[in-house]
């Protein structure tokens, strides 16, 4: 899961091994799963309110199929009210930003990164032992979380995920802006 490409550094300026793209992707998947569980738990009443609507949609579809009629058009936009969509989006933003900022400030890694043995450090400071500053974690978290929640920014998310594949210091866009790198130090 090294993921190095020609012209890419494999260590920080002070010699600590940089994380490969595969390890970063696995950590992001784990973090996404965890934050999804947290958002689902926090917004469970909204999801519970959609069950009768989903039952009505499925019932109408099955009734039409059994009677030989044309099934109704599937319109999933009616499942949530506008207010529910705003609440879900606010919960995703609040939980995602809080999760990333708190863990990066506290441990220099999210739970996914900890599981994968990764750490976030200031640019070219692989042996850094201090805490990341609040500005650093806020910028990093915002650039990572906001495009994932706001669907019109999905291309920013895709570019951010792929950026370390060709970036010389294996940085994602959020790393470049926050002046950080992700390391995978050898554990002794």
Tell me what you see in this structure:
The protein is mainly α and 188 residues long. It has a domain of 125 residues. The protein contains seven helices and two strands, in the order ααααβαααβ. A two-stranded antiparallel sheet has the order 1-2. α3 runs antiparallel to α5. The longest helix has 26 residues. The radius of gyration is 21 Å and the shape is elongated. The two termini are 20 Å apart. The model has no long low-confidence stretch (mean pLDDT 91).
The span between the termini is: 20 Å
Rg over CA atoms, rounded to whole Å, is 21 Å
In helices, the fraction of residues equals: 55-70%
Coarse morphology: elongated
Mean pLDDT: 91
Alpha-beta content class: mainly alpha
The strand count comes to 2
Largest sheet: 2 strands, antiparallel
Proportion of strand residues: under 5%
| Number of helices in the DSSP assignment | 7
Can you lay out the helices and strands and say which pair or pack?
Elements: H1 21-42, H2 44-67, H3 82-107, H4 111-116, E1 119-122, H5 134-149, H6 154-162, H7 173-178, E2 180-183
Antiparallel strand pairs: 1-2
Helix pairs in contact: 1-3, 3-5, 5-6
Structure summary:
This protein has helices at 21-42, 44-67, 82-107, 111-116, 134-149, 154-162, 173-178; strands spanning 119-122, 180-183. α1 crosses α3, α3 (82-107) runs antiparallel to α5 (134-149) and α5 packs across α6. It is built from 7 helices and 2 strands, in the order ααααβαααβ.
Keywords:
58% helix; mainly alpha; 7 helices; 188 residues; single chain
